[in-house]
Amino acid sequence: MCTDFTGLNKACPKDFYPLPSLGRLVDGSAGNEVFDFMDASRGYHQIRMLPENEEKPHSSLNMVIGRNMEIYVDDMLVKSKTKADHLKNLRETFNRLRESQLKVNPEKCSFRVISGKFLEYMITERGIEPNPDKIQALLMMEPPKSYKELCLAISDVAVSSVLVREVEGTQRLIYYVSHVFREAEERYLVIDKASFAVVVSARKLKAYFE
């Protein structure tokens, strides 16, 4: 027996503590010199609290989030602009973890590295780079043989856009946005697909426009 919980989900109380934007976390992490990747042991199950307080966890880790640390559920990243700041940032993070009585899984931790995967993105000192695991299909795909073939291939599959910044007459790429069409979206008219590309870009790049 299968059950559709769509209606039930709409009726459930909304989350007043939404998860942070993945784009903001990744953007705020890239470009640092040293990284430490950590994974919380057993996620939030190690946090003991009263039932009436389960919706609003809070710890001293909030004091470093966004400054030299980013957290998404149980994934933690300590970022350091320079190697000189690395030990100081790591020490502060461990002190906060100790105060909050949180443990990490050593098998899923990497310390003092210059790049690594965070939320399925490759984070490096240079910025955000392609995740090899995510582009295998693209690498194996036969390249288009003409400009027309390229346009036709893209228009029926997905929409994409780039956010650029002009510096001294040269355009610098800042962010890429793409969306693979669902079944109904594939039947949109060409003009509707173009409009949909604007909508997708505006939604995903909202933080840059505010």
Automatic annotation (TrEMBL):
Residue span(s) of domain Reverse transcriptase: 66-119
Domain of life: Eukaryota
This protein's record includes keyword Transferase: yes
GO MF terms, alphabetically ordered: endonuclease activity; hydrolase activity; RNA-directed DNA polymerase activity
Keyword terms of this UniProt record: Endonuclease, Hydrolase, Nuclease, Nucleotidyltransferase, RNA-directed DNA polymerase, Transferase
Residue stretches making up the Reverse transcriptase RNase H-like domain: 152-209
InterPro entries: DNA/RNA_pol_sf (IPR043502), Rev_trsase/Diguanyl_cyclase (IPR043128), RNA-dir_DNA_polymerase (IPR053134), RT_dom (IPR000477), RT_RNaseH (IPR041373)
Record keyword Chloroplast present: no
One Pfam family per UniProt: RT_RNaseH
Protein name (Swiss-Prot/TrEMBL): Reverse transcriptase domain-containing protein
Species this protein is from: Lithospermum erythrorhizon
